[in-house]
Fold this protein.
Amino acid sequence: MYKILLLIGLTLSSNSLVAATVEIEMLNRLGKESMVYSQNIINVQQGDTVKWLASSKGHNVQFLTAPDGVASFKSKLSVDTEYTFTVPGIYLYQCTPHKSMGMIAVVIVDGNKDNIEAISATRVGGKSKKRLAQILTTISS
Ligand SMILES: [Cu+2]
């Protein structure tokens, strides 16, 4: 009986502990857009990893606004990079060289939008202002 319960327990916990990895490409061009991440908005669960692929060169990932207590994160240019999200909330990040060209995006962890005001108050420049407004409209609806 104990062994059966143990097996059931292991099966349940291994299912819930399987963390996903989501891939995002860093691109010079996607359709009519230039300097973009392949997805502007993604939803993940706590423990999931996002892997950014250097499909085009000259891009990176730099956190702009993240939930309280999350350390800053900035990757090197032109290399694949990854980050495992452990704190729920919205993470706004940019590509450092193209921060004014609309190359910003968000990751939402556990559907938690408690820090949306901090995201909305984040100052971005150039084309990224419009992109941030679009992102906020989409995630607020
Ligand atoms: Cu870039």
In short: The first strand starts at residue 21 and ends at 30. The mean pLDDT is 92. The pocket of copper (II) ion is lined by residues 35, 59, 95, 97-98, 103 (CB under 6 Å). The CA atoms of residues 36 and 94 lie 10 Å apart.
